């Protein structure tokens, strides 16, 4: 599942995000959502979140 819809993501969800520094390479970072930073219901590049370890990026993959 992609991370473009805010309703699909809740704190505690396991996700893969792309960090700002990794946007060119597309390198993904795995983690667990702590906070959802995007206020709108959807975003074409992925919902921005903060992981439990403090890293911030846009959700690319949601793990079920």
UniProtKB/TrEMBL annotation:
InterPro entries: DUF2196. It comes from the Bacteria. PANTHER family: YWBE PROTEIN (PTHR40069). This is YwbE family protein.
